[in-house]
Amino acid sequence: MTRPDGTQRSWSTRREDKQRRLQRAAAFADGRVLKPDRIVEALEAVIASGDRVALEGDNQKQADFLSRSLARVDPAKVHDLHMLVSSISRPEQIDIFETGIARRIDFAYAGPQSLRVAQLLEDGKLEVGAIHTYVELYARMFVDLTPRVALVAAEKGDRHGNLYTGANTEDTPTIVEATAFGGGIVIAQVNEIVDTLPRVDIPGGWVDFVVEADRPAAIEPLFTRDPRLITEQHILMAMLAIRGVYERHGVLSLNHGIGFNTAAIELLLPTYGEALGLKGKICRHWTLNPHPTLIPAIESGWVESVHCFGGEVGMERYIEARSDVFFTGPDGSLRSNRVLCQLAGQYAVDMFIGATLQIDGDANSSTVTTGRLAGFGGAPNMGHDPGGRRHASKAWLDLKTDPGPTARGHKLVVQMAETFQSGGVPTFVEELDAVEVGRAAGMPIAPVMIYGDDVSHVVTEEGVAYLYLARDEEERRAALAAVAGVSPIGLRHDPSRTDDLRRRGLVAYPEDLGVRPTDARRSLLAARSIDDLVAWSGGLYEPPARFRSY
Amino acid sequence: MTRPDGTQRSWSTRREDKQRRLQRAAAFADGRVLKPDRIVEALEAVIASGDRVALEGDNQKQADFLSRSLARVDPAKVHDLHMLVSSISRPEQIDIFETGIARRIDFAYAGPQSLRVAQLLEDGKLEVGAIHTYVELYARMFVDLTPRVALVAAEKGDRHGNLYTGANTEDTPTIVEATAFGGGIVIAQVNEIVDTLPRVDIPGGWVDFVVEADRPAAIEPLFTRDPRLITEQHILMAMLAIRGVYERHGVLSLNHGIGFNTAAIELLLPTYGEALGLKGKICRHWTLNPHPTLIPAIESGWVESVHCFGGEVGMERYIEARSDVFFTGPDGSLRSNRVLCQLAGQYAVDMFIGATLQIDGDANSSTVTTGRLAGFGGAPNMGHDPGGRRHASKAWLDLKTDPGPTARGHKLVVQMAETFQSGGVPTFVEELDAVEVGRAAGMPIAPVMIYGDDVSHVVTEEGVAYLYLARDEEERRAALAAVAGVSPIGLRHDPSRTDDLRRRGLVAYPEDLGVRPTDARRSLLAARSIDDLVAWSGGLYEPPARFRSY
């Protein structure tokens, strides 16, 4: 056996290169504190052309001082960067592709910038590595997409690099861990540099530089739903879901999406749910952002725990005053963590329920409907039956239909959708728009959000389809069509089969569930306005200005 | 709308109760440092009967000073605890059920203690909440199993509670995060209390007490495989896997289990793999513990990155000298993280490949074969096709067989097994022992480790079955039987179908893959002993005494 050690290869090239870069940047810093007015020079010193750079654009929090500064570096000095941005939200995150500073991007969501992404892709100025779910993109940072440089955001920092993220911890610890221990360089923008932090969310040893931002990091209130916009149709569907899914299966732990349908469910728990005697029997443990519409259920004693992906603007004082329910630090503020909440939402809860914009006849669904390459976000991480789950819960076992010796349960993966979107556009379609969008963008597979074979239930205003009870694909399609109204898929339905499907429990209409559509009134909502939510919170919830009526 | 605030309910009961407990324990501490000789009294002060207590028993690292101390508390004062122990490894973790200190347990793996768990279960002295995979159990800590008290282990701590975990970070940050931010109490045993830590792995603000242990925390070298025990049969299977799976699909990123089959693959890369011209084309990114048998492949330049669940005894100096490959801190030592590595192994890699002890005709497999309730560990988290994955890789797309517009790729989930175990016990069986074990233990479902519907390939000494190419269940079973030798499943095989299965690519025998069984010699191994591994490492690998020949 020979050991090929004739060459004197260095095995710490990343570490040595990092030290050189840090030395170059030292001119623009006082110890670990970068001078804000020298930030562009500092980035030019730290970042090399072709680097893989993680720029923190989370679902909510944006390292926007750093992204605006990155857009100002000299493309002659720094170019062809490979960007990792989980949620592309800001124009300057895309501007850098027009100027040549960046060339390639791996991302998870590009909602507000998706048209520009598509345009630059077509113009050959931007290459897409892949479109991921949030968790996938972080996972790859530990495998084949480890960042050379990470540009992240926190609320406060100290001179030793310790970071306090406040309520929006989100993805910061994960990005920093991958970069710092992968031999990369971490720069954190903070709203304020202080001597003593309220708490340490990320140890200073993991952070190379902090810099005080010109203004607080941008954070969007993405999870605030104004109860005034909840319609009687939403309420009817919420009643069907509560009786036909939550009550039937005894759903104790769950994730809710951000739609008005699930907001309606949250607001029906203290009224309709209470009248059905369901308190304590459903909805005790939650994985979701701190939705203001959950306040009445919390105040009424329905909710034992809430673990959060991120925070929500205006909920800070309320959360601090409800530490029995929320995960908070000794300082009182929320500790969120997107990776851990996604993990909880994937493996530990009974149910994922979410709204969608399009469903095909096989129950595949997508929110891609407009020709935009919007990406996935986090829904697919929770909206599937996790193959790695082994523990049982009542709800999970309820969905075990195979009597065989090696059969297992199934997570409740529920899709809620009205049969038509506003403007009379059908939700149930022959082919998802995503198929054509994916084809046009040259994607290797169509950007399906939730795959039909994972979906256990579909709830519409017509009723509930219990897809997990179907014996075969044909029967699945028939059950789905039976709740698809007069959409193209619904019109396929053969009404002569309906009785059989209802009798065998594959389809339930409102009367089968004891729900009277005429009872679906807004008066059932525990809160009918943002002001009502503020009142329920005892004045602790402080809605952002755009949601205030006063 | 009325707000039901007539009652003056407190919403910070956990926080207030925690303060009372901390005050009681203050008598046994100097600030945050507990006096080791008062540890039993301190635990009695901090833990209340009925509490949910997370005791760090990881796959490798054990908080054994704390578990031994917990076994000494007065059962009249502290009883009926609900324990969360990911890997039950030590006798005192079970003794506490005999004395009544504990009553209920949620766990992931109980290998060495599984017989006693089964006995106490039968005697009614122990209740099992559920048996999980590692990641599931942590996930539930953020949902419905948040610990009231966590007893964890680190290498060093300081008087402020900051912890340095060294190479075996494993599960500590996750358990501490769930407990600390869930309003619980965190006690960490450390080998040593020092003024200045080599690095901070867990911030002091998350930890209530540190205590110096009477001896270093127990850590098992679970991932060391002595090359002397690799047989020519292992080598043949490794050659089949390299040609029939790794090369064929261009597997760039992967997880390896701990068996001798995969150790053989690691040791064939610098020899057989090199001769095939595969360097750079396969096996560049790894998620696994730092296997000593990976050293020759690393030294030969095959390996770009390794992210680890935990550490491995004896690999410390080698890892420090190879920071381009491993995730390490500024102190030079490994930063492992089980949750993040599991996440990477689930979502970010092309392939999971593992050994198993039993496979049934549908390719379901289990390591439960002896009547023991051993649990799952982490394999199922990676050994399935993750429904939440959306990005494509070449290998993943290679397994896409459906031409439909919404079809997707598939993770390579590969099972490697000789058709017979030692002693002539068949690996391929009509029914898994797990079915009867689960039934006898009253489990709601059988403890299947990897489900057949997730498995894409099975490799035996007979050949490779490409199950993902099967058109239906019957054909899957036929392909599997074709590589199952003269086991009960293999004898089912109709030899007249073999040609068709081989022609259509569902089955490949050695000659189909260009592998000559007579070439499968131990001389092909890059290292044939532990000493060889030490030599490859340039003396940096320091094997534990039990593996040394000198």
UniProtKB/TrEMBL annotation, chains A, B:
Protein's UniProt keywords contain Lipoprotein: no
One Gene Ontology MF term: acyltransferase activity
Enzyme class, broadest EC rank: transferase
Protein species of origin: Starkeya nomas
Record keywords, A-Z: Acyltransferase, Transferase
Lineage, broadest ranks: Bacteria, Pseudomonadati, Pseudomonadota, Alphaproteobacteria, Hyphomicrobiales
Record protein name field: Acetyl-S-ACP:malonate ACP transferase
Enzyme Commission (EC) number: 2.3.1.187
One Pfam family named in its UniProt record: Mal_decarbox_Al
Domain of life: Bacteria
